[in-house]
Amino acid sequence: MSQSAVLLLNLGSPDSTSVPDVRRYLQEFLGDERVIDKPANPFLRRLLVNRIIIPSRVKKSAHAYASIWTPEGSPLILTSRRAQAALQQKTGLPVALAMNYGNPSIPDVLRALVAKGVTRVLLFPQYPHYAMSSWETVVVKVQREARTHAPNIRFDLVQPYFADADYIDALVESARPHLARPHDHFLFSYHGIPVRHLTKADSSRAHCQCVADCCYTPSPVHGTCYKAQVTRTSQLFAQKAGLEPAKWSISFQSRLVGEPWLAPYTDAEFERLAKEGKKRLLVITPAFVTDCLETLEEIRVEGAEEFKAAGGEEFTHIPCLNDQPVWIDFLASRVRRWQQTGALAG
Predict the structure, then answer these.
(1) Local confidence band at 210 (pLDDT 50, 70, 90 cut-offs)
(2) Is there a contact between 110 and 145 (Cβ–Cβ < 8 Å)?
């Protein structure tokens, strides 16, 4: 009899806020060829990452992590652990958690699943939207590591759920207490990607083996670019929440310098909206299901400072779905569908 389990996949976090730990994390993260893919030559790319980008960022990044760290550790890891436990209790299935970068690592978790006799796993990337540098890279990494560490496990895959009605419902429900407060504008801030990734991702999906080799069925959203997906999420949310068209907009955060990224940029929008007289701002970050450095420090702290420095007065970052009951219910509903039908859960 086969033993089934669920594997939640997320980005990751340094083991601590020390500079050596942050440096190791950045080397793994920024060294991913799907995250930083220029220059094409691997040697030159490693040179750029390890000799230029990381030395210029590591101390600042360590300080940023320290500003959000809790006595128990990384907010991303701690919240993910709570969601893992809640989902396991809700479904009665073993639920594992792995990070694309850092710990718990994908190889370690795969070996643990094999040791427990697991033969079928539902992969559940904690990314609502497809992007080469997020959803694709973690799925490909599981596929690659499974060949060595778990060759006999069958993997089924939850596809990006950016337009899933139940996901939109969960997102809106999580935001309702904040929407009930007076506000002048509602901003959707999504993680940015280089503009050229929109076309490169379409090309990479054409020959990517992640679906053919380890997934239950091909993705129904291939061919839908990241920008179209985040726009659709925002539109569906706005319709469900009853937002007036003139009172919401989309922006993109967390860019690197050196080439055009998706615009408008979130930090520039904070300034623009404040100078246009928007005194009370609500910000939601739907590309992230778990609060992390990019939401807690970049938006909740730096974003609030930027907005108020430009003349804004009230700044509210709506927390990510995290381990809220509506999010656990959504995860559990997809797990149950998979258990009952054996079909793709996304």
Answers:
(1) very low
(2) yes
Written in H, E and C, the secondary structure of 47-80 is HHHHHHHHHHHHHHHHHHHHHHCECCECHHHHHH
CATH 1.10.472.20 matches 165-317:
no
**What is the model's pLDDT at position 8?**
98
What is the rounded CA–CA span in Å between residue 285 and residue 68? Answer: 17
> Phi and psi for 248 in degrees, rounded to 5?
-145, 155
Residue pair 195/261 in contact (Cβ under 8 Å)? The answer is yes
Please give the share of the chain, as a percent, with pLDDT higher than 70. Answer: 91
d(CA 131, CA 81): 24
Tell me if residue 182 falls in helix, strand or coil. Answer: coil
Which is higher by pLDDT, 253 or 205? 253
Q: Quick check: 197 pLDDT over 90?
A: no
CATH of 4-158+324-341, one of 3.40.640.10, 3.40.190.10, 3.10.150.10, 3.40.50.1400: 3.40.50.1400
What is the identity of the amino acid at 133? S
Q: What is the pLDDT of residue 180?
A: 96
